[in-house]
Design goal:
alpha/beta; TIM Barrel; two-stranded parallel ribbon; 15 helices; 14% strand
């Protein structure tokens, strides 16, 4: 019998800022996602909310009010876990209150209790691209060490209230995207010359490393059985040299290492030796203390959660700027391309799992993988065969990675319900097994409808992966 072993955590993943809506309900304060009329990768950043503008996150898919019905759909698919995030400003509206919001804590307590009742382990990201807006305008986000203590106050409140319901936590979503999308990942508004901007990025990163370590310490004090993970965007770690030219091979390795730098610090407990050259060559000015380094060393993360969507190809002189989906690069003639221009590379996921297992030797959790597409309703149904093909091909490679010896504890498909795209702020780019009736202009009934992929994933989970290897017909 070919399967994924006992206890494999099948599930799906969303984020509060892309799904909940109810942006100002029950005392919730504004966060950075509430200021964006577009996706987080847009170049124009605004920190004020205009009256007549359309903000996708303000209603999103109204998961806030509909989560019980939505979780029933996830239960029907057979989910063993469900990943979501807590909106920091539901608990501390400005991020600086002395006491947490009872309404916010009660909301998540009921949500996670519902998951447990339905047989799903909550997998919770503590901060997922939704830093309270006040902390951005007042402190410039994570460039300030002030946020470390404020974040720990937030962690203490949710650990004490929700720790009996949650076993799997991740401190920050895609923390390495501080480098590519600093406003979303760290609430940072960059300014100054190149050296100053990079110093702001790496100071924010360091402050988040310290917060991660101290949150790990706090979690294990309050919740001894908790698993504390770090979460990275690692599509950028699957990068192939475009030629055998030594400069391209070295450049490929250096780009891959840039993606893995954040895991090196948080899983190995220290800054890697190559960071010294980064400081020197980029003229970085950083405030790093011995006590902070001691905490990073003493309290590393327990497991590595990561996203993977695509691979890329590097060649000297080719643009490698990127965002949530990974790095850009040279086209790969051996791979098919999605409608949004992303290469489809299932084997890249197996490669990544082996790379991470060899490098860190810690449990791996694939917490984001998915396929964005436009869906068409035909005779009341959605036949999303390309999404099904993507799902099956990637899961077959996950199974191969398990056979390779990788310690993979679970897989959560990104966006099991259609949600607002983080990269573009639109609904047209859909990932879900469940269709949500809403368009890019915010129009629609929000009605939920199962796609063909719903039943395919249901079958995969029911057979613990064995259906992936059944011959069709």
């Amino acid at each position: 019998m070919v399967d994924f072993g006992d206890g494999f955590l099948w599930g799906g993943a969303i984020a509060a800022n892309q799904a909940e809506g109810a942006w100002n309900v029950a005392g919730k304060g504004p966060d950075i996602s509430d200021t964006l009329t577009h996706g987080i990768m847009a170049k124009e950043i605004h920190t004020k909310i205009e009256e007549n503008a359309y903000y996708p996150s303000h209603e999103a898919i109204d998961f806030y009010h509909r989560y019980k019905d939505d979780l029933e759909l996830m239960h029907e698919m057979g989910f063993k876990c469900f990943r979501t995030s807590i909106a920091w400003s539901r608990i501390f509206p400005t991020g600086e209150e002395e006491k947490p919001s009872e309404a916010g804590l009660a909301y998540y307590e009921e949500m996670f209790s519902t998951m447990k009742r339905l047989g799903m382990e909550p997998v919770v990201t503590i901060s997922h691209y939704e830093t309270p807006l006040n902390l951005v305008t007042k402190y410039n986000g994570w460039t300030s060490k002030k946020l470390i203590s404020l974040y720990l106050r937030y962690c203490k409140a949710i650990f004490k209230r929700l720790g009996h319901l949650v076993n799997y936590w991740m401190t920050f979503n895609e923390i390495n995207n501080v480098r590519t999308i600093p406003y979303a990942a760290a609430g940072v508004l960059l300014s100054g010359n190149k050296a100053e901007r990079l110093s702001q990025i790496y100071q924010a990163s360091h402050n988040m490393f310290v917060a991660n370590a101290r949150a790990n310490k706090l979690a294990h004090q309050i919740m001894p059985k908790a698993h504390m993970g770090v979460m990275l965007s690692l599509s950028g770690a699957v990068i192939y040299a475009g030629t055998t030219k030594p400069e391209d091979v070295l450049g490929t390795y250096q780009l891959q290492r840039r993606s893995l730098f954040f895991a090196d610090v948080q899983l190995r407990g220290k800054y890697p030796s190559y960071f010294k050259r980064m400081i020197t060559e980029n003229h970085l000015t950083l405030d790093i203390t011995e006590n902070e380094l001691a905490d990073i060393k003493a309290f590393p993360s327990d497991y590595l959660g990561f996203s993977y969507y695509r691979s890329s190809v590097y060649e000297t002189g080719v643009n490698t700027a990127g965002g949530t989906g990974g790095l850009l690069g040279k086209p790969n003639p051996y791979l098919k391309i999605s409608k949004w221009g992303w290469p489809i590379d299932p084997i890249g996921l197996r490669y990544l799992c082996n790379l991470l297992q060899d490098r860190y030797d810690k449990p791996l959790f694939i917490v984001e993988n998915g396929y964005g597409d436009e869906d068409k309703i035909i005779d009341g149904k959605i036949h999303d065969q390309e999404r099904i093909a993507y799902l099956k091909a990637h899961l077959i490679e996950v199974h191969e990675a398990l056979q390779d010896g990788c310690n993979i504890i679970g897989y959560t498909w990104w966006g099991p319900l259609d949600i607002v795209s983080a990269g573009t702020g639109e609904m047209r780019k859909r990932y879900g097994f469940v269709y949500v009736d809403k368009n890019n202009a915010g129009e629609g009934t929000l009605r939920r409808m199962k796609k063909d992929s719903f039943y395919e994933y249901q079958k995969i989970i029911q057979t613990n992966g064995a259906s992936l290897f059944e011959e069709e017909g």
